[in-house]
phosphoenolpyruvate carboxykinase (ATP)
Amino acid sequence: MASINGNVLAKIETQKMKEDTIICHDDSAVPVKAQTEDELHSLQKKKSGPNTPIKGIQSAFGIPTTEVERQKQQLQSISASLASLTRETGPKVVKGDRRAETPKLVQASQPKHTAAPNITDSALKFTHILYNLSPAELYEQAIENEKGSFITSSGALATLSGAKTGRSPRDKRVVKDETTANELWWGKGSPNIEMDEQTFLINRERAVDYLCSLEKVFVNDQFLNWDPNNRIKVRIVSARAYHSLFMHNMCIRPTPEELENFGTPDFTIYNAGKFPCNRYTHYMTSSTSIDINLARREMVILGTQYAGEMKKGLFSLMHYLMPKHQILSLHSGCNMGKEGDVALFFGLSGTGKTTLSTDHNRYLIGDDEHCWSDHGVSNIEGGCYAKCIDLSREKEPDIWNAIKFGTVLENVVFEERTRQVDYTDKSVTENTRAAYPIEYIPNAKIPCVGPHPKNVILLACDAFGVLPPVSKLNLAQTMYHFISGYTALVAGTEDGIKEPTATFSACFGAAFIMLHPTKYAAMLAEKMQKHGATGWLVNTGWSGGSYGSGSRIKLAYTRKIIDAIHSGELLKANYTKTEVFGLEIPTELEGVPSQILDPANTWPDKSAYKETLMKLGGLFRKNFEVFANYKIGADNNLTEEILAAGPNF
Ligand SMILES: Nc1ncnc2c1ncn2[C@@H]1O[C@H](COP(=O)(O)OP(=O)(O)O)[C@@H](O)[C@H]1O
Ligand SMILES: C=C(OP(=O)(O)O)C(=O)O
Ligand SMILES: [Ca+2]
Ligand SMILES: [Mn+2]
């Protein structure tokens, strides 16, 4: 008998009661229809529709396949993607998570070995496939398995990209074979660092072995390009829920019907980013390698978990595939006014493509990657990838509001308990990012297509502070600045004032182009001419002095400038010509103080201005030397005009 402090507890007397008073009723609600906890939990989830890429496959006897058979076909396709090229043909794959209460134990059937079975541990093992999971499921996967995953106060998924917090352009390689040797741009200035087929296969095998060794891998089957005639089917195989959610947001999401008809992908990414490559492998110079094999239609990622690598890798693919169809691929943002006027925003990273294409008064077509075909423009992607550093609700409300449930927030810092993000905090990196589906922007244009552009805006963030806030360009000048691809950012630093460094990146995206820059430039010139588009150069950088003495042009002013371009107002302004660069600048523009329109007025030290202007002019000239021997387009006159459109001094 139980006793406390030696006192024997009194026995509780239970009396015989009437039938209806025996059970103590907690409430009056109807009780759940479940006898056990498991049964109760099974009531929670409603059955989803089929989630398989193969539709209406008839079995050998003409009987429609069952859902189980369909899933088997889907898994066979995934198993084929994950197959080692040197051992058994494909791993045993199982759909669904092992911890799921009711695992969908559909297995891909294994090919029968006729010879002595090549049994390895990896052949005996099962790999669980998490196929096109929903954002909610991916949140659960990330939070359960990936350290550094948290739900922020606005509902976004905060993640860490690991050691790499930006792209690794010096580790991006392309297989040079008989075809690509002739087709692609190689050598000085080219982003295509060569590798051979054999080395690619070694890295591919490395990635596949790593992925198959995992308990589970994520597979996304999605689309690129909103132009239905030039849509590309991509499969992304990755190890992290973060990567799967990122691509879910960034690529075009198939409808359930489209997924049923998906079939074989046109291109596959193997993202084994957590696993490194190594210098014992030929061509490898670090533990990171991003390898593209156009013949195999594959990309392998080793040694970097930065998700932007996947999006920009696919962009490189489009820069190869689209020009083959006379379609111009563009590193630009794109939006459209109420009257159907389309604007393109070219610019290197940090110059304002995402910020300025996201405009509350216009329809967003896309923030970063587009195609310009004979039918108009189309976004390649299904989402946006915005920088978050110093993000403010007041200045960029649409981006702010897009950071909600479903959005991936990379490398941000948040308050431990409230999970309130501090967008000013650079502790992890300055390159903090948000990836969200384009429909999170209220005035997104779905489908993301539009007519031919009316304005082509070249953005440069000039930290030297000598380029005017806006200039109107003629076609030759547009081409000159497009091929130059100038910007000058200042690396974030705490220790003192640093000199700005000029960056020239052909076509405002040399890291992603596959052909020689003049190929894209010629296409742009032809399209702009044909459709009567006007070119503009907008400096979103410094005014009143270089970085350190001047200040960045207020976003509000840049927006006014952009508004005046869209409305056609700026086309009607009076213009004067600047010295050295020979740029046409407006004398007045509503909402912008007139004195800032000419940088010569804003510098307190006139000789310092002139000196800096000449210095930048010299850098432009030096950079353009390599293009002087190339012909641009069919017309030789244009080449001459472009060469003459640079700085003159
Ligand atoms: N005048 C300005 N115009 C455009 N962006 C500005 C301006 N001033 C500050 N910014 C900031 O510069 C960054 C531009 O980056 P972003 O739009 O992401 O460039 P991109 O998409 O071209 O890489 C944003 O963080 C934006 O808030
Ligand atoms: C995704 C990127 O694009 P951007 O900085 O132009 O937005 C990147 O450069 O990694
Ligand atoms: Ca970009
Ligand atoms: Mn951007």
Notes: Residues 497 and 548 are 6 Å apart (CA to CA). The chain has 17 helices and 33 strands. Confidence is low (pLDDT under 50) at residues 54-64, 111-116.
